[in-house]
Amino acid sequence: MSLRIYLPGDTTAVALGADEVAAALLEQASKRSLSIELVRNGSRGMFYLEPLLEMEHQGQRIAFGPVSAGDIPGLLDALAGDAAQHALYLGATEDIPWLKGQQRLTFARAGLGDPLSLAHYRSLDGFAGLEKSLQLTPQAIVTEVTESGLRGRGGAAFPAGIKWQTVLDTPASQKFIVCNADEGDSGAFADRLLMEADPYQLIEGMILAGLAVGATRGYIYLRSEYPKALDTLNAAIAIAQEHAYLGDNICGSGKSFHLAVRVGAGAYICGEETALLDSLEGKRGMVRVKPPLPAIEGLFGQPTLVHNVLTLAAATTVLAKGAAFYQDFGVGRSRGTLTLQLAGNIRCGGLVELPYGTSLRQVIEEFGGGSYSGRPIRAIQAGGPLGAYLPHSMWDTPLDYEAFAAMGAMLGHGGMVVFDDTVDMSTQARFAMEFCAVESCGKCTPCRIGSTRGVEVIDRIIARQEPAANRELLLDLCDTLEQGSLCAMGGLTPMPVRSALHHFPEDFG
């Protein structure tokens, strides 16, 4: 009997024992004289089921999970009989409700095969956007992105087409494409998953962005805590160069694009685009005063298009299938799909991709499955460590940028961290201020000093020292941070603090 078995090799699966499962599988195959082709694919994003083992069986891929090394003998025995009787049997992978209920554009290929197989990527319409772009003028590419309604997926949600147009219109002998892969938000992992499961999509997005704005060099600024992503990206870049998708003569077109990975040093502030550029230049990562904008004077003083991983990846769909196709997903000014990452006290954690407009309650209940502890959910922090804490009354708000902004919240990078009813929201507010104090670059006074004073004020509130007066002082301090900080680090720190104070006042005495 010959078997093709898929077992993810990404960070999450490996952390949960996938390498041990692979070793046990090969050992059992040797003992049983079985012929096995083991494909180390990327994760499909169902982290609560990792390690997820898939087998090609009777013409379809069936799944088992979460699998441990000790489960392998029984799994192989089950395949000789009725596999559906095994306790870890999940049925056909594509029919698992958690996966079937999604509408995946950016993550459509994730988990389907070997992330480094160029043939596999091409077989699933990979490089279709690039091939079309090579036949278009730079302005035509930019127009397509603009008309699609694509907005930055890194948190600010700025219209991508405006950035592209600005870089295109700025004359320079050298321009750059910079990918911000410094994914530092708590509960965020979409960038890492895409880089580990579908790296050619990011590479393709950067190449076509280069063609659009006239940039011939690109850099991926990668979070230092992502060693597997680093290895995968470097290997994929080498293969792409070997097959003329990168270099001096892309696909025989006479056009060039060179790409390299640079690793950060663990500073959250380098997720801010100007601090990132300083770091890329070999300096300490500190926020720059704007203007000038990076699109006009960015890396080494040259016009630079800075985008998040998911934004560049989404651009490949826009170019491959057209602006109208992409516009067909979403609501209002939020077009395309939103990638949500469910984390924290959640039973079914992982990555969910849906069109904008779905409610947070639907996502948490239908995909998250409630809290991991089994206790009632009390709060959800949306949009990372600088995002608001949302009570039950706000969970029916549609997931789109404007609707969240209207209620003093943000979608950010799509991280959703869940807390059950044992959480102390005064402690969470303190964490937000302390996070800012620790991660501030120190350039501006409101952020550097204000966050430190904020921790002290919250400590006094928690200690019940003149709580009413200190709450008023804390709100004044939040106003100063919001209006006086140089970047979003200090400017957004008040959002989680105010939301905790407003929605959960009972925790502040």
Properties at a glance:
509 residues, alpha/beta, Glutaredoxin, 4 domains, five-stranded mixed sheet, 21 helices, 41% helix
Structure described in brief:
The chain is an alpha/beta fold and 509 residues long.
Distance between the amino and carboxyl termini: 67 Å
CATH superfamily of the largest domain: NADH-ubiquinone oxidoreductase 51kDa subunit
Unreliable segments of 5+ consecutive residues: none
The CATH topology annotation of the largest domain reads as Rossmann fold
Shape: globular
Instruction: Kindly state the percentage of residues in helix.
Output: 40-55%
Main pleated sheet: 5 strands, mixed
Tell me the β content: 15-25%
In what order do the strands lie side by side in the largest sheet? Answer: 2-1-3-4-5
Radius of gyration: 24 Å
Average pLDDT level: 95
How many domains, as an integer?
A: 4
The CATH class of the largest domain turns out to be Alpha Beta
In DSSP terms (H or I, runs of 4 or more residues), the helix count works out at 21
Number of E strands = 16
What does this structure look like?
The chain is of the alpha/beta class and 509 residues long. It has four domains: 2-95, Glutaredoxin (3-Layer(aba) Sandwich); 118-327, Rossmann fold (3-Layer(aba) Sandwich), CATH 3.40.50.11540; 330-420, Ubiquitin-like (UB roll); 425-508, Up-down Bundle (de novo design (two linked rop proteins)), CATH 1.20.1440.230. The chain is 41% helix and 16% strand. The chain has 21 helices and 16 strands. It has helices at residues 11-15, 18-32, 72-79, 97-100, 118-123, 128-133, 138-148, 160-169, 190-197, 199-213, 227-242, 273-280, 309-321, 323-327, 360-368, 401-406, 425-439, 445-462, 467-484, 488-492, 494-503; strands at residues 2-6, 35-39, 53-57, 60-64, 89-92, 176-181, 217-222, 258-263, 304-308, 330-331, 334-335, 337-344, 350-355, 377-382, 389-390, 415-420. The strands form four sheets. The protein has a five-stranded mixed sheet with strand order 2-1-3-4-5, with helices on one face. Strands 13-12-16-14-15 form a five-stranded mixed sheet. Helix 7 (138-148) crosses helix 10 (199-213) and helix 10 crosses helix 13. The radius of gyration is 24 Å and the shape is globular.
